[in-house]
Amino acid sequence: MSKTAPTAGLRLALLFIALFALAVPWYWSDREWLVWGIPAWFVSAIVFSALVSLVAVMALTKPWPGETDDSKHDDQY
User: Fold this and answer.
1) Under a CB-based contact definition with an 8 Å cutoff, are residues 13 and 49 in contact?
2) For residue 15, is pLDDT > 80?
3) Three-state secondary structure call for residue 73
4) Is-contact 48 40, C-beta < 8 A?
5) Which of 63-72's residues contact partners 24+ apart within 8 Å by CB, and which partners?
6) What are the start-end ranges of the H helices in the chain?
7) 59-69: average pLDDT
8) Are 55 and 16 in contact (CB under 8 A)?
């Protein structure tokens, strides 16, 4: 196991926590801003939720530490 694996996992966890915190509109003030006629908190929640999904997809498409990339052998089956 390499020394970078725990650091990468910690960075990924912190990124998820930050994105989830930003996706929840609890920090918006009572003043309502509109973006294309939609409340800005709603746009923010949708954008950050999409970013959480994108980061999850990117994290899950890479092999986990200790796994090998078997994509070279997929054409044999």
Assistant:
1) no
2) yes
3) helix
4) no
5) 65/1, 65/2, 65/5, 66/1
6) 4-23, 40-61
7) 74
8) yes
DSSP 69: -
Nearest residue to 11 (alpha-carbon basis) of 53, 55, 54: 55
Confidence band for 28, pLDDT divided at 50, 70 and 90: confident
Q: 3-class SS at 62?
A: coil
CB 66 within 8 A of CB 1: yes
Tell me the pLDDT band of 54, cut-offs 50, 70 and 90.
Answer: very high
Average pLDDT, the chain: 79
Q: What is each CA distance from 41 to 12, 21, 45, 47, 56, in whole angstroms?
A: 25, 13, 6, 10, 22
Structure tokens at 50: 């999409």
